[in-house]
Amino acid sequence: MEEVVLEEKLKEQYGFIFEPELLKAIMETGKYRKIPDGDHIIEPGQPIQHMPLLLNGIIKVLREDENGDEILLYYLEIGDTCAMTMNCCLGNKKSDILAVAEGNTEMILIPVQYMNEWISKYDSWRAFVFDSFNVRLKEMLETIDSIAFMQMDQRLLKYLRDQVKLTGSKEIKKTHQQIATDLHTSRVVVSRLLKKLENNNEIELHRNRLKVLQF
DNA sequence: ACATTAATTGTGT
DNA sequence: ACACAATTAATGT
């Protein structure tokens, strides 16, 4: 990608947060990456060498158990960075999570060795890192609540709301099966609940997509 | 335009 | 949860 365009994108998303010095450092050390929809960005067991700064797109962060079962931990949006990655960076450990691109995703990868240096060097970086750590933690607590205490219909509603907020569109382009995997349940359950919502005129059902009519 | 097929969605047990 | 029916989208003829 053109250097100039990249710099503009960076400023667009992070210009208000980071001081000019830091932006320059990011431009110098970061590597631009474009990830197509559905590609795995990080897999469990992989050592982490970079930390991502999202330019656009969404990243889905999942936990995977030994059977290959997955649970959705949280989503990363533009302007976010990955708390799990930071955790790994500090200890130079391997990844505990699976990160998948959702939609075409562009990001800048920063080698982990700069993490520590920048934390002491740039106030804005330290603030950014801690802040996003907080946000992630909060989101994960929500997810835990939702798994532990909420009924499936509530979880589905939350999921739909999140999708709308996340993509900025009331159209959700997913199959029932995909939703079921995200929520860690069976497709049949999702189908039945969605059908109920449709009967209540809360959503519109189509093949491979659905439309939210309320909220 | 029609038939075939594969994938997704709906429903009863 | 499973099995099957119904529907839809995609593809070839």
Concise overview:
This protein is an alpha+beta fold and 215 residues long.
Verbal overview:
By secondary structure, the chain is of the alpha+beta class. It is globular. The longest helix is centred in the middle third of the chain and has 27 residues, at 123-149. A hairpin with a 2-residue loop joins strand 7 (203-206) and strand 8 (209-212). Strands 1, 2, 3, 4 and 5 form a 5-stranded antiparallel β-sheet that branches. It has helices at residues 3-14, 20-29, 83-91, 113-121, 123-149, 152-167, 176-183, 187-199, and strands spanning 31-35, 40-42, 50-64, 70-76, 97-111, 171-172, 203-206, 209-212. The chain contains 8 helices and 8 strands. Helix content is 48%, strand content 26%. It starts with a helix and ends with a strand. It binds a DNA duplex (13 and 13 nucleotides) through residues 175-177, 186-188, 191-192, 194-195, 205-208.
| Average pLDDT metric | 88
Number of strands: 8
Helix content bin: 40-55%
The number of helices is 8
Q: Nearest-angstrom radius of gyration? A: 19 Å
Strand content: 25-35%
Q: What is the approximate shape? A: globular
- Coarse structural class: alpha+beta
Topology:
Elements lengths: L2 H12 L5 H10 L1 E5 L4 E3 L7 E15 L5 E7 L6 H9 L5 E15 L1 H9 L1 H27 L2 H16 L3 E2 L3 H8 L3 H13 L3 E4 L2 E4 L3
Helix pairs in contact: 4-5, 7-8
The chain binds a DNA duplex (13 and 13 nucleotides) through helix 8.
